[in-house]
Specification:
- The complex is a heterodimer of chains A (537) and B (226).
- Helix content of chain A is 56%, strand content 15%.
- Among the domains of chain A are: 273-352, Signal transduction histidine kinase, dimerisation/phosphotransfer (DHp) domain (Helix Hairpins, Orthogonal Bundle); 363-509, Heat Shock Protein 90 (2-Layer Sandwich).
- In chain A, a hairpin with a 2-residue loop joins strand 4 and strand 5 (184-193).
- Chain A is built from twelve helices and twelve strands.
- In chain A, helix 2 runs antiparallel to helix 6 and helix 7 (260-316) runs antiparallel to helix 8 (323-353).
- The longest helix of chain A is centred in the N-terminal third of the chain and has 57 residues, at 21-77.
- The radius of gyration of chain A is 53 Å and the shape is rod-shaped.
- Chain A has 537 residues and is α+β, with helices and mostly antiparallel strands.
- Chain B is of the alpha/beta class.
- Chain B has helices at 12-24, 35-45, 61-71, 85-93, 106-117, 153-164, 172-180, 189-202, and strands spanning 4-8, 28-32, 49-53, 76-80, 98-101, 127-130, 133-136, 141-144, 147-149, 170-171, 212-215, 219-222.
- Chain B has a five-stranded parallel sheet, sandwiched between helices. Chain B has a four-stranded antiparallel sheet with strand order 6-7-8-9, covered by helices on one side.
- The interface between A and B is medium-sized, with 18 and 19 residues.
Chain lengths: 537, 226
């Protein structure tokens, strides 16, 4: 569960990262600045630390040298004839002088130790500040370096001072030098606590750290503001173009100032205006044209009705006419019918062209719809010697479609199949899956060439002009069928294989508005004339 | 006497042709070319049926339809060049019983006219009850208590069809066949609109029908007798 959450967060973060230019810019800027700030602060901290330590050390070694000098003077000024016990007194005196000269802010401790391995009296004896763990603080290395020194100079070593008071550790410096007491070499060690220097350094580091963080925050805020200033108008432009694309042709970007963003806004608005004008002009034009086609169709209908009535009256009485007149009446009758179909198709096409079609969907059982269509065409098929068969493994549910349009597609496909079926059986498949329902109409007639396949949905295009037609198609049938399929969000596809006939497959999504990915039926469906005996026809 | 039919159409050629067809079938046609005069023509001819073009100069066919309906239940069949939803539904709502879309053939026209003029089915006589309504089948009258409710012949037939088989649920297609005489798929809006008109007259609360009940997804049936 926790793992899942974590992934969710990562995904969300990644999505935000991809989608927000602002976040990306701010994050990258802050990251890069933080690297630079860290490097600078680190360098500054190191060099300040080194400088502070050097200054402190120089000062302390100087003070140590002075103390050594002062201590040496105490012994040098002493009377030659002093007794050995007086030397101890002198030692105390010297120690006091040394302490006063060498005193520092952190407190100074000292030790005067006789260099081991010398002859002569063991006086004066060693002195040292109380509590100075000389053994641990003053290292053997330092002692040997100091002891073997021949020059009058000081040596130093950094040490850690344990604080008995609170257990903390302070940095310290041990400075060693030599004293000559009556020919005997003594070593003077001064132990300085340089905690105050350390504190200064910490303060500097803290200041640097805080300053760095503040600087980064400032950079972040500045970047955010700047990016916002730049990205804001871009985002507005993107939103506006989306609204434009969605059809709100009158939206524009407010223009402010005279900078490059304003130029962008102005040219965007210019583009929108010219697009709007163009679209309006085209819309008006298309409306006029559509109106015209629709008016023409309607105007044609009244005289056509009269012609039709007249033709039918004559047709009904053709038995009483001489043969030539009777045939004339017949021709008039059939051609008026054809004219009427053409007019209806033209009107339908003009509606599609004008985008003035609306679906009237109702729950429809597609298998039943196909059965009805097949039934209505059975006699026509029989007249051409074709048998109509239905194979319906699926599709027995109510699909939300416009039954009028689906019926029209079916009639079209089946009558085409009858026309080109060469009297062989015609099979209609119906099947469905989770997302879609498909109807395929397969004939085993002459089929089509590759060139024909490409043009088969074109208006007024005919597969073979010389071929006799019995169903009296208008040449608009497949074009309308294609539009009908598209209106349902579906596909109408064609397959043909030279002499093995053709197959048209209609696929519609089960739910309105759903996107089609695949069809429940193959194109063409399994290529055998099925021996199913519930064939219709 | 031959049934009289008033043909209201501004296209004289079409009107004349319709006249020829009707006369062949034994009807007596009268003509009117102007929408504004149609109502007067209706008054003077007192026809048994009106064929009415929807697009007329002078007065709109829909308006004429509504005016005739105000005082007469005479069958009205619209001649329309538009099969578009809005116009057809408007015509039906204003009281037309049926419609024929141009271009039509003589058989279609005659079949529509004949269905509307056929004598009421004499399958049933006497009285029937639907809800709190009483149907006098022979007298073509509907009463709620003592109040007479005026129905057009079509509305009466629709109600009668439902009332005669109170147990049966009628699909729209069944009603189209029985009441309108369509033997193949036809416009189910005819049923929807006329059921609404009927409800407006017979129901006490048309939004909550008690006489003509809707059976969801199937059709309609008569309400239970009180």
């Amino acid at each position: 569960m926790r793992d899942f959450d974590w992934r969710g967060w990562v995904q969300r973060g990644a999505a935000l990262w991809r989608s927000s230019l602002q976040l990306r810019t701010v994050a990258i800027t802050v990251l890069l600045s933080s690297i630079v700030v860290t490097v600078i602060a680190g360098y500054m901290s190191l060099s300040v630390g080194a400088n502070l330590f050097d200054a402190s050390r120089d000062q302390l070694t100087r003070s140590s040298a002075n103390a050594t000098l002062a201590g040496q003077q105490v012994f040098d000024a002493a009377d030659e004839g002093l007794g050995l016990e007086d030397l101890d007194v002198m030692m105390g005196e010297a120690a006091r002088v040394i302490e006063s000269v060498a005193s520092s802010t952190g407190g100074t401790r000292y030790a005067i130790l006789r260099t081991p391995g010398q002859d002569g009296p063991r006086v004066p004896s060693d002195v040292q500040t109380q509590g100075l763990g000389s053994a641990s603080l003053i290292s053997q290395e330092l002692r040997s370096v100091v002891a073997e020194s021949t020059e009058q100079r000081t040596y130093w070593q950094s040490v850690a001072l344990d604080q008995t008071a609170d257990g903390s550790v302070h940095p310290g410096l041990v400075v060693g030098s030599t004293l000559d007491i009556r020919g005997t070499q003594y070593e003077l060690y001064l132990v300085y606590d340089i905690q105050d220097t350390q504190e200064t350094l910490v303060l500097v580091q803290q200041t640097l750290g805080l300053g760095g963080v503040a600087l980064l925050a400032l950079i972040g805020v500045v970047t955010f503001v700047v990016v916002r200033l730049v990205v804001g108008p871009v985002r507005l432009a993107a939103e506006t173009s989306q609204r434009l694309a969605a059809g709100e042709l009158e939206v524009r970007i407010p223009v402010q100032g005279d900078d490059v963003i304003a130029t962008l806004a102005r040219s965007f608005n210019g583009m929108a205006t010219s697009m709007q004008q163009q679209i309006m002009r085209l819309a008006a034009l298309s409306q006029v044209q559509q109106r015209f086609v629709s008016d023409v169709s309607h105007e044609l209908r009244t005289p056509l009705t009269t012609i039709r009535l007249a033709g039918d009256v004559l047709y009904d009485q053709r038995d009483t006419f001489p043969p030539a007149t009777a045939r004339t009446a017949e021709l008039l009758h059939t051609q008026v019918e054809r004219f009427e179909l053409l007019l209806a198709d033209l009107l339908e096409m003009s509606r599609y062209d004008a985008g003035a079609v609306d679906m009237e969907t109702e729950p429809t059982n597609l298998v039943r719809l196909v059965e009805e269509a097949i039934e209505s065409l059975t006699s026509l098929a029989a007249s051409k010697g074709s048998e109509l068969r239905l194979v319906a493994p699926g599709g027995y549910f109510e699909a939300d479609v416009d039954p009028r349009r689906i019926r029209r597609i079916l009639q079209n496909l089946v009558s085409n199949a009858i026309d080109h079926g060469d009297g062989l059986p015609i099979v209609v498949w119906v099947d469905s899956d989770q997302d879609a329902v498909a109807i395929a109409v397969r004939d085993y007639g002459v089929g089509m060439s590759q060139a024909a396949l490409e043009r088969v949905f074109d208006r007024f295009w005919r597969a073979d002009p010389s071929r006799q037609r019995t169903t009296g198609g208008t040449g608009l049938g497949l074009a309308i069928a294609l539009e009908d399929a598209a209106l349902h969000g579906g596909w109408l596809e064609v397959w043909s294989d030279g002499d093995n006939g053709s197959c048209f497959r209609l696929t519609i999504p089960r739910e309105r508005g759903a996107e089609l990915r695949s069809s429940p039926l193959e194109l063409p469906p399994h290529d055998e004339i099925p021996s199913v005996e519930d064939a219709h026809g | 006497m031959n049934p009289r039919i008033l043909v209201v159409d501004d296209d004289t050629a079409l009107a004349e042709m319709i006249g020829i067809v009707l006369r062949t079938e034994g009807y007596e046609p009268f003509f009117c070319q102007d929408g504004a005069l149609a109502y007067d023509a209706f008054k003077s001819a007192s026809p048994d049926l009106v064929l009415l073009d929807l697009m007329l100069p002078g007065m709109d066919g829909i308006e004429i339809c509504a005016r005739i309906r105000e005082e007469s239940g005479v069958p009205i069949i619209m001649l329309t060049a538009k099969s578009d939803t809005a116009d057809v539904v408007k015509g039906l709502e204003s009281g037309a019983d049926d419609y024929v879309v141009k271009p039509f053939n003589p058989k279609e026209l005659v079949a529509r006219v004949r269905t509307r003029l056929r004598p009421a089915s004499d399958a049933a006589t006497g009285t029937l009850t639907v809800g709190d309504l009483e149907l006098d089948v022979t007298g073509h009258e509907v009463r709620r208590g003592d109040t007479k409710i005026n129905l057009t012949p079509l509305e009466f037939e629709l109600l009668l069809a439902l009332a005669m088989k109170p147990e049966q649920v009628f699909t729209r297609e069944m009603l189209l066949e029985q009441v309108w005489g369509y033997h193949y798929k036809a416009d189910t809006r005819l049923v929807n609109v006329h059921v609404q008109r009927l409800r407006a007259k017979v129901e006490e609360d048309p939004d909550n029908p008690k006489i003509v009940m809707t059976v969801r997804g199937v059709g309609y049936r008569a309400g239970a007798s009180a």
